[in-house]
Amino acid sequence: MAGTSMDIIVAGRHRPGRGAAIRSLDPATGAVLAEVTTATAEDVDDAVTAGAAAMRDPRWRGLLPHQRAALLHRVGALIEEEAEDLARLQAHDIGKPLKETLALVASAAGTFRYVAAALETLDEELTTPRGPYLSMSVHEPIGPVAAITPWNSPIASEAQKAAPALAAGNAVLIKPAEWSPLAALRLGSLLLRAGVPPGLVSVLPGPGRVTGEALVRHPGVRKVAFTGGTGTGRRIASIAAGKLMPVSLELGGKSPVIVLPDADLDQVVQGVLLGIFSSQGQACVAGSRLFVHRSAFEELTGRVVAAAERLVIGDPMAEGTHMGPLISAEHRAAVESYVQLAADEGGRIRTGGERPTGPGLEGGCYYRPTVITGLDPASRVCQEEIFGPVLAVLPYDDEEELGALADSTPYGLACGIWTRDYRRAWRLARRIEAGTVWINTYKQLSASTPFGGVKESGIGREKGRQGIRAYMTQKSLYWGLDATPSAWGT
Questions:
Q1: Up-side HSE of residue 52: CA atoms within 13 Å toward CB?
Q2: Which of 96, 107, 380, 400 is the most buried (most CB within 10 A)?
Q3: What is this structure's pTM?
Q4: Other beta carbons within 10 Å of 42
Q5: Starting from the edge strand earliest in sequence, which strands make up the sheet with 289-293, in order?
Q6: Which positions are catalytic?
Q7: Which neighbouring-strand residues pair with 438?
């Protein structure tokens, strides 16, 4: 793939973007995977204009739900056919181990299949009349949708937005993250191969300050679905407010993982490792704060440290690799700065806190899984999203204190609870401010279950049957049944 040149997709047509090219780098080696041209405001305008026109085309507008569903089923089938190639592409592009990128591809295919099935059974509503009329509620496409996706879970994130947007009848304009554009471009090609009308599909790589800004500000874009950092989410929301445009914002997290005294520690250790060290900690739902009852604090901390030190760091393509590289040298430096800050704030680095050494690791952006104790829950490291393999372990004494500690950050995306006591689990799950709570498991996600956050973790929900409705507008129809419905003034 090295040296490959790739173009953007505007209304189904591959063409060079007018912006400067960006390089996609393999974070495991630093090698250049491809040079990708980028979209300017002019390219965005072309895509939005063409998308709006394609939505008005009777050949698309007149499709019945089961006919649109058939297209989405074909997309899912094509993704499955190319699963191995897509997974390898992503493993090179973002550094995740191959077993994780295979799961991302399976998730994307599953999303298209689920949305297709949900679309076929998504009924309209006949409302209760309160006069001599028949009343109903119908849903229609909202308009061209900007789908702005993150670099940590390509294709799965793109599918999570593109599938329901297309199911709802919209044009979709995908803006992948600057660091990971390759999977989105491949998905755009698969959408076209499946038979989605060309004008409805655009993939517009480029910097957020140029391409993303142009998409959000364009008057023809009727909704923005964004996954990424809270700062960028605030900016999108501010622009959207001026346009009176709806947005879906899935933002950052600082998720607590709570271990009650009766928990099975063998299960806890495995769940904690999955929650914070899979994907190298580069996940919005990463369980980055571990709250352990003081009676088990030292035992569990020691077991987590020992298990973290057994994790295999290395080539994402190699069988048995648990952790690949971080996405870039720039991001690794940011993670390192947080670990240094933890030490400055009085934290004790129990393991990790450094770059690994060894054959094959020299050119990559690798970082060891890191466990820190001794921090104040109000410290910056315990309050701010690091987006890396850094776990803060914190003791607590009672459940009342625990609830306050878990909710002490500005975020509210996810939470994990480990206990044998279902009553306490229910009580805590209902109390904690989070969009998703896992009980005796972690990082389980389903296309059928709504996902999103509260507080600074975002607004709106994706997934589930209502995930399609999020890309539609609602219209009420009244059918007069009175023989003299307009007798006013006579």
A1: 12
A2: 96
A3: 0.95
A4: 12
A5: 348-351, 370-373, 390-396, 289-293, 256-259, 414-418, 436-439
A6: 161, 250, 284, 462
A7: 416
